[in-house]
Structure prediction request, 95 residues.
Amino acid sequence: MLRSTGCWFGPVPLSTAPVPLHKPRARHEQAEKAYATGYDKGKSDAVKQQYWLYVSMQKQRNQVGSVRLYPVQLPEQRIDGVTFQPSTKYLRIEE
Prediction:
């Protein structure tokens, strides 16, 4: 074994010499592809979540609970020079 710059090393057969698996550019491209794939999956998941939230809200809205109409008598009144005739309006209460 030989000693050079404080490290011990010996003859290394060519078959066990470390060989880089990917070039730096290939690793960068692979990382960008993985990021884009994750980003697309995240967007897809967000859209699905919004869709199911919307469907859930529609189901709740279609359920008819207790609905009551209360008559409200509106007297004759004058607002900004306009005279409104007395009338009856209905206030809808939904529970």
